[in-house]
Amino acid sequence: MKDLKYFKEIPSTDLPLGALISIIHRVQNININQGIKKLGINASQAGYLLKLLHSTNMTQDELSTQYHIDKGAVARGLCRLEEDEFIIRKRNQTNKRCYQISLTPKGEEVAKEIEKLNNIWEEHICKDLTQEKKEELQENLKMIVLKTIELNEK
Amino acid sequence: MKDLKYFKEIPSTDLPLGALISIIHRVQNININQGIKKLGINASQAGYLLKLLHSTNMTQDELSTQYHIDKGAVARGLCRLEEDEFIIRKRNQTNKRCYQISLTPKGEEVAKEIEKLNNIWEEHICKDLTQEKKEELQENLKMIVLKTIELNEK
After folding, report:
1. What are phi and psi of B86, to 5 degrees?
2. CA distance B72 to B89
3. Which of A25, A70, B23, B69 has the fewest Cβ atoms within 10 angstroms?
């Protein structure tokens, strides 16, 4: 396939980090979208469900912070998930302006499916990396997240 | 700032590679968008202009392959860039179904601006990495691109 051929031939040092990150993000989304198409949700909604699987009763603001997506976009994405009964939103009793979000049983089932897809991807891309190399990669990518947030705030 | 605090505190091994890539992609886009807002283009159009700066007379298909974006989306993005006189599209003389794309002087100027923004980002995120570590990171990310394309084609 010509895409694979193109990337195989180009020396990795000719690929800027920004371009590499963008391409991974896009091809990974193609992969996730293929798997979730039948569920009627998109890749960012899949991300929210996945986050909620491990952090019950999050607020919309926390989701926005942890995914680094603006609050309006998070609100729109969640609204659709609520309509389709994947999540429920409850007003916080102490802070009425705040919504707490949790998965419905239907949402939990779908979130587990998405997690399975992510695990398949993660295992596949890491199979030639030692545990040490994988951890070094996570550390470097975390460093890039921090430095990019820092640069945005300058 | 609370985003930075959240990412600083979480151990990097708790962050799946997929989540790290998504976050970098989003925060890097925020950064690029801040810089190009005044130019009236979006982050993916900025990507096309940048690619054309170093590869004159590319075809639409080549752009679609190298950016791993579907042909329809590339065609729409380029259409807008042509209207705004950043690029010109010429029919290939030997293959009439094929368009060759090149930058106008206005497009070249903007592409150089975008390149400058990308270089600032790249330098900032790499300043604590040795050349050897940077090259290893590029190699690992290229490996992830290849493995993800491979997985999508299964």
Report:
1. -90, -25
2. 16
3. A70
Residues of B in contact with A132 (CB under 8 A): none
Instruction: Determine phi and psi for B103, rounding to 5 degrees.
Output: -80, 145
CA distance B46 to B33: 9
Does residue B123 belong to the interface with chain A, where contact is any CB pair within 8 Å? no
ipTM of the complex in this document: 0.81
Q: Pairing state of beta strands B99-103 and B58-59? A: antiparallel
First to last CA, chain B: 42
Interface of A with B in 31-60 (CB under 8 A): 31, 34, 47
Q: For every one of its 154 residues, what pLDDT tens digit does chain B have, with 9 covering 90 and above?
A: 556 777 788 898 888 898 899 889 888 888 888 888 888 888 888 988 988 998 877 888 888 887 777 888 888 889 989 999 999 998 888 887 788 999 999 999 999 999 998 899 999 999 999 999 999 999 999 999 999 888 888 7
User: Rounded to two decimals, what is the model's pTM?
Assistant: 0.82
